[in-house]
Amino acid sequence: MQNWLRTLLAGAAAWKWGGGCVGTILLFIFFYWLLGHC
Length: 38
Fold this sequence. Notes:
Distance between the termini: 8 Å
Radius of gyration: 9 Å
Transmembrane segments: 14-35
Helix content: over 70%
Number of domains: 1
Shape: elongated
Order of helices and strands: HH
Keywords: Membrane, Transmembrane, Transmembrane helix
Number of strands: 0
Number of helices: 2
């Protein structure tokens, strides 16, 4: 998966389910890692 697409998808998922500043950052890192392994 291309890096910009992976970043965009991880950011969108983190924004939707983050709930707060720290939660959004942690979810972004999690989804970015997860999409890198798919």
